[in-house]
Design goal:
With 71 residues, the chain is mainly α. Helix content is 73%, strand content 0%. It has a domain at 7-32.
């Protein structure tokens, strides 16, 4: 095999590895995006739940909520 052919084969091998790496990184990015969207939805649900809980009338305070954390 002449040197030009060896260089071409070497470049093709490197390109194959790079393509595989890009695919793996893309899959990881897609997975992280899905996880981030799930977390965003969960935060939104918890924010709405907290807003509903704080909308209760002042006369309906639960004394259990006022206990110090060491009780």
């Amino acid at each position: 095999m002449d040197p030009t052919e060896e260089k071409l084969v070497d470049l093709e091998v490197k390109l194959g590895f790079l393509e595989r790496t890009v695919e793996q990184l893309n899959e990881a990015l897609v997975d992280q995006d899905a996880a981030l969207q799930r977390l965003d939805r969960r935060v939104q649900q918890l924010t709405e739940r907290m807003a509903k809980a704080s909308d209760t009338e002042e006369g309906e305070r639960n004394l259990e909520d006022d206990r110090p954390p060491h009780y």
